[in-house]
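We were asked to recover a plausible sequence for a given structure. The inputs and outputs are reproduced exactly as logged, with field labels preserved.

PROBLEM: sequence recovery
POSITIONS: 298
GIVEN STRUCTURE:
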């Protein structure tokens, strides 16, 4: 059973966090202002702009900031300002006890996949979608996040293409960034994908590296029991030097896993980066992916 946090209303508290890589003050300010215009009370830690090379401060700083937000019973949503890298360094030391007493929405993508996997492992739904930086930069992304957090977004349908024809299947949404999921599998933190529709995207990985990660997840039986696999944007991943294409990998993945694989879903590291709710029910056909953000699609 998946628990869905309460939707937000004007005046509710929302915390912007930096569990991964650093960002510029202007990026943070734009995110704060956009959420404030929506009527939310936005909070950030005083040390949120700290830097430790490619990290947004020390592991202790980032874990303390995130744990405080997870524990606070009055917080209704936690939004990562940026992905990048670093959430995996603190995930093993997160405490879920108070979060389970008062679940709240975790919002973001890319490295935030670590937190989505963590939420999935304890049975709480989360929002895979634009980080706070995207909300501050793009009004369409901002509107999509706001509609989701307010409970105004009820269903979405994406047009996709299939590796081969198949009968419609349904399952529960899970997944995110392929590289992060592969690393979570190595760390022993990747939840079961049984009965899941697995969403995958990535950026800046050569085709052979995508192949290597998919092959390792297949051989490790991490797709065991999955209902389907939905491939989003694989941005800057395909090049002439490798010869093989992502289309070939999709066909091979379908043959190896034995479940439908569809491509062209609009989420990941380029526009549009549309929302799906991890834990919500999803229906997949050879031409479309339909997901309801709190209930099962018909």
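RECOVERED SEQUENCE:
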């Amino acid at each position: 059973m998946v628990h869905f946090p309460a939707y937000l209303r004007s005046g509710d508290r929302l915390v912007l966090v930096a569990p991964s890589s650093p960002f510029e003050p202007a990026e943070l300010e734009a995110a704060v202002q956009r959420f404030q215009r929506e009527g939310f009370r936005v909070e950030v830690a005083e040390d949120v702009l700290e830097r430790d090379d490619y990290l947004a401060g020390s592991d202790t700083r980032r874990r303390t900031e995130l744990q405080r937000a997870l524990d606070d019973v009055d917080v209704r949503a936690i939004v990562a300002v940026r992905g990048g890298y670093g959430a995996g360094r603190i995930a093993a030391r997160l405490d879920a006890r108070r979060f389970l007493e008062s679940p709240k929405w975790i919002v973001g993508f890319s490295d935030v996949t670590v937190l989505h996997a963590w939420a999935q492992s304890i049975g709480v739904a989360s929002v895979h979608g634009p980080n706070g930086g995207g909300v501050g930069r793009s009004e369409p992304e901002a509107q999509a996040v706001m509609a989701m957090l307010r409970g105004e977004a009820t269903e979405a349908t994406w047009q996709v293409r299939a590796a081969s024809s198949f009968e419609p299947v349904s399952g529960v949404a899970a997944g995110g960034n392929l590289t992060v999921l592969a690393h979570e599998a190595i760390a022993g933190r990747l939840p079961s994908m049984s009965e899941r529709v697995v969403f995958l995207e990535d950026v800046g990985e050569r085709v052979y590296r995508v192949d290597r990660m998919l092959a390792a997840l297949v051989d490790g039986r991490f797709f065991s029991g999955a209902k389907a696999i939905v491939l989003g944007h694989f941005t800057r991943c395909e090049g002439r030097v490798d010869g093989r294409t992502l289309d070939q990998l999709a066909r091979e993945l379908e043959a190896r896993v034995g479940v439908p694989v569809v491509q062209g879903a609009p989420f990941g590291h380029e526009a549009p980066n549309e929302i799906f709710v991890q834990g919500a029910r999803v229906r997949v056909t050879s031409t479309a992916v339909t997901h309801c953000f709190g209930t099962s699609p018909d």
